[in-house]
Fold:
Amino acid sequence: MIGSTIGTITAARVAGGGRRLLPTDGPVDVFLADGVIVDIAPAGILSPRGEILRADGAWLIPGLWDHHVHVVQWALAAQREPLGHAHSAAHAARLMADAVDQADGRRVGTGFRDALWADVPTLDVLDAATGDIPTYLINADVHSVWLNTAALRREGHEPDGIGILREGPAFEISRRLNDVDAGVGDALVARMARHAAARGVVGLVDLDMAWNESAWERRLNGGFDALRVEFGIYPEYLDRAIAEGLRTGDPARGAASDLARVGSLKVITDGSLGTRTAACSHAYPGDPHNHGVLAVDPGALSELMTAATGAGLSCAIHAIGDIANSNALDAFTLTGAVGTIEHAQLVAHVDIPRFARLGVGASVQPEHAVDDRDLTDSIWAQQTGQPYPLRALADTGANLLFGSDAPVSPLDPWAAMAAAIFRTRDGRPAWRPEQRVDPATALAASTHGGSTAAALVEPGALADLALCERDPTTASEPELRAMTVIATLVAGRLTFGR
Structure:
């Protein structure tokens, strides 16, 4: 049945956007044609048309989006040694000693979080465990990589006794590790997309550090049809994008379908919390001269955004610390650019209302708040900005767009919604519960338009839909995380079904 075009969804209950517009609170039949919803009627009133998807009282919602994914890196994570449970540098090194060698002779692990380890990563610790096999450990936030001597030399770096590369050099290592054979990578991306569709996902924003148009042209021409994609453009490719006339919203050129479209200019302006490089107004504990890293100064950022805006490209600006967020908002003000700030993890109180005033979307990852709660309470304890200000942003009218930053967090919009609504996981008390958002806002933020422009289940809307077991607006935190998706449709075509 996968790939079938559905004509009628029978006996569905609607949750989220569009529910208030329905003529009944009971089950409805939803009629689809040419990729859109054409009619909705009380169940059994009208005769079904075309192929039927029987909801049997399940809940119909707008299809879900993940607004921040590094697609290839997330797809490759399945082949890498998971390190999220490593409780020390020595433990992480031992895990890599037993890791499987990849086809090219390297060992790659991912997901370690060293900021609260009692010991410090060193070259001696890693070399003792891994010997002459080139070994790479990627931080959970992807902003640093710990390499052994063999890996450093393979990548052209002289050993320094520590082996940790941060920011730009770390990103370059990730680019090299992600540069796999296209056939292998595309097969893993297709697998990732099937898993996403099984969670109700109909689209994602791909922010891989590459020239993404050609990759998506190749995938679509090879039969990829599981998701919609909007792909980012990094500053090193901006001149090429402008010269070739790429504009936000245009379909990927030469592709077999319009499922992949040009997205935004992506600029990384500062570091991260876990690597202690997010640009902040106050210093990091024990390091009075460390206020983080500004990778792009305000003048250069405004120049990039001006060029992008003039060429018809929106902007997606990575800003985690409060100084970086202030700079990004200033640049949106100066340039008149449209787009998003990615992450917005620590925001000065005075800056929170500026998102809505400027029309800048807050592309945020609610699971990061749960992942980083202990780091935030420790490393950012002296900061005066508001950490993970979901409710504060929503209350001022900002458009929230939820994502995962996969592989930093798993690509699962139900986890993002659970974190945003309940601010907890694993039975712990809610963290900063005043920043919870209501279920309707969380569901809307997980659709293409975001919390202030949510996708709706209504006639004329795209038939990008998901059918799920429970009403997500009343589900508990464990129920949201374990949500069973029954079917997912993109333009009325079944991309997942049980």
